[in-house]
Write a structure and sequence with these properties.
The protein has about 270 residues and is mainly alpha-helical. Helices cover about 75% and strands about 0% of the residues. The protein has 13 helices and no strands. Helix 1 packs across helix 13, helix 3 packs across helix 7 and helix 7 packs antiparallel against helix 10.
Length: about 270
């Protein structure tokens, strides 16, 4: 009786996964096997392994790596010091609030900030320097992307740090470990699950960024997301766009498998 009840309770989840996960992926795979005239073909998959798309794939991974690296570099110390503050939940909320603002609005705000007549160039001119074009560069693209993803990286790391048993840190220090050794041998390993979760929620979306590449990088940065948008909206080649999407899904699965959390390993503190 209990088994039947548990199976019936799973039905909504199975239905949800079938309708909103499996069906869309199956549709993308189906379209990837069609050419621009609607005929079945494998030419889209052959075209993906051409130098153009391979270079685009490497470029996407490179920028996703840079964005994830700098986001982690900023987020971990921020989350660490947040857990040491008196009103840590309030400070965390203040950091998360900007993520509630529409992404397009934040992007346009940075266009104003980085523009020739923006506040940064106005500040530079005070010291006698000529204004610089900061938009449409790789640096501006990575900067804006890192800013956007920081709250998503901080949240899982903060939760891991906040759940860390402080007696383990005290024990390490009492046994003579330095602050750096305590961090390297105790704090970091026990909060690695939060780091992995943060990498997942930053690296995977960073692989498919397309709006920021247009507005901030001025199409100087071409990613897989940009290519999918161009294939669907510009060239109307849904087959090639779906093929790129299939490979993007595969890359995402690989990233999730690599950064996935393993059970019963590393002495998780409970």
């Amino acid at each position: 009786m209990q088994t039947k009840t548990s199976k019936s309770a799973l039905f909504p989840y199975v239905l949800w996964i079938a309708l909103f996960v499996i069906a869309p992926i199956a549709l993308v795979v189906y379209y990837s096997l069609l050419d621009i005239h609607g005929n079945f073909t494998l030419d889209n998959y052959k075209a993906f392994f051409s130098s153009v798309y391979l270079k685009m794939t490497l470029s996407s991974f490179w920028y996703a790596f840079l964005i994830t690296f700098f986001t982690l570099l900023i987020s971990y110390p921020t989350a660490y010091f947040l857990t040491k503050t008196k009103h840590k939940q309030l400070w965390l909320l203040l950091i998360i609030i900007p993520s509630w603002i529409n992404l397009l609005l934040k992007t346009y705000a940075f266009i104003g900030i980085f523009g020739l007549y923006g506040p940064i160039n106005a500040f530079i001119e005070v010291f006698g320097f000529d204004p610089k074009q900061m938009l449409f560069t790789d640096i501006s693209f990575v900067f804006v992307s890192v800013y956007i993803f920081i709250p998503f990286m901080i949240l899982p790391i903060f939760n891991s740090l906040d759940r860390l048993n402080p007696t383990l840190v005290y024990a390490a220090r009492d046994l003579g470990a330095s602050a750096f050794t305590t961090f390297r041998r105790v704090v970091l390993p026990l909060t690695m699950d939060g780091v992995k979760s943060g990498i997942q929620v930053v690296f995977i979306p960073a692989l498919s960024l397309f709006m920021i590449t247009r507005l901030i990088a001025g199409n100087r940065v071409i990613t897989l997301g940009t290519a999918i948008e161009q294939q669907f909206l510009v060239t109307q080649n849904w087959g090639m766009g779906s093929t790129i999407a299939v490979f993007l899904i595969l890359f995402m699965v690989i990233v999730m498998l690599i950064t996935g959390q393993k059970k019963d390993k590393g002495g998780r503190v409970r």
